[in-house]
Amino acid sequence: MKIISHRGNLIGQDISWENHPDYIKAAVSVGFDVEIDVWYISGALFLGHDSPQYSINKNFLKDLPLWCHAKNIEALEYMVNSKLHCFWHETDKVVLTSKNYLWTFKNNILTSNSICVLPELQLDVSYDNAYGICTDYPIKYKQLLDIL
Q: Count of CB atoms within 10 A of residue 129's CB?
């Protein structure tokens, strides 16, 4: 099962560090893919959830195992044209990523191609048949899966 760190978090949400390039690299260095929030404004790339905070370059997006959440339509267009793994959503229950995974939100049906987003916020979720999960607690989930 693929375990994806949500915004670089490893042992719980840390809003002050989320989407920071060093935080993302730390999560990758211990073996996780990372979901990040990407903005494209006036020809420049940025990371940040509610607003563009951290300037990055295209190589950052190409060189790491990332699931890029486009935060504006310009970011989506840029990443699709650059063949980066990305997706866009507003209030959708499920969205298709550019690599054909089903990015699946709370309490929706999961398939063998689904990523269960934030299973820790769901009651009685069974993600056994899903391709993976995206979580603020990837270390906890990896430990649980290693036990099973």
A: 13
CA angle in degrees (0–180, nearest 5) for 79-21-7: 75
C-alpha dist (Å) from residue 98 to 69, 121, 141, 142: 11, 25, 25, 25
pLDDT at 148: 56
Per-residue confidence (pLDDT) for residue 145, from 0 to 100: 82
- Every domain of the chain and the residues it spans: 2-147
Strands 114-117 and 86-87: unpaired
Q: What is the DSSP letter of 119?
A: G
* Partners of 55 in beta bridges: 46
Structure tokens at 135: 């979580």
Please report the beta strands in the chain, taking only residues with DSSP state E, as ranges in sequence order. Answer: 2-6, 33-41, 44-47, 54-56, 66-70, 86-87, 94-96, 102-104, 114-117, 132-135
At residue 10, φ and ψ (nearest 5 deg) are -120, -35
pTM: 0.95
